[in-house]
Write a structure and sequence with these properties.
By secondary structure, this protein is an alpha+beta fold. It has one domain (2-118): GMP Synthetase, Chain A, domain 3 (2-Layer Sandwich), CATH 3.30.300. The protein contains 4 helices and 3 strands. The chain has helices spanning 2-23, 57-69, 71-82, 97-118, and strands spanning 33-40, 46-53, 89-94. Strands 1-2-3 form a 3-stranded mixed beta sheet, with helices on both faces. A hairpin with a 5-residue loop joins strand 1 (33-40) and strand 2. The longest helix is centred in the N-terminal third of the chain and has 22 residues, at 2-23. It starts with a helix and ends with a helix. The mean pLDDT is 88.
């Protein structure tokens, strides 16, 4: 039963944070961000939100600074929207797995094209 609750909370956090990114966070430092995943601790006191940020290193750094400065607002909003007894501490983590995946696909395509050229 606890696993189901944690999974439901994880999905709610992803959904609500995604909506906050679209509608509520007005910081100009925050660029194009998408939520890739969320993890909830066993005691529901912490939530890690993984985000993918589009742009160069400077844009990513500025976006993370904007998100870090908005943590208090994000936590308060999550508490209002999800209605938990104790609102979890929010940790936002940059996730570059999509970028790595894209790079791997590009490399695989290059190898494939090279093999076609040799045949």
């Amino acid at each position: 039963m606890a696993e189901h609750r944690a999974e439901r909370l994880r999905e709610l956090v992803k959904e609500e944070f995604g909506q906050m990114l679209q509608r509520d966070l007005k910081d100009p430092r925050i660029g194009f961000v998408s939520v890739t995943d969320a993890e909830v601790s066993n005691d529901y006191s912490h939530v890690k939100i993984f985000v993918s940020i589009l742009g160069d290193e400077e844009a990513k750094k500025a976006t993370m600074e904007g998100l870090e400065s908005a943590k208090g607002f994000i936590r308060t909003e999550l508490g209002k929207r999800i209605r938990l007894r104790y609102t979890p501490e929010v940790h936002i983590i940059a996730d570059d797995s999509m970028e790595r995946g894209s790079r791997i696909m590009k490399l695989l395509n290059e190898v494939k094209n090279e093999q076609r050229g040799e045949s």
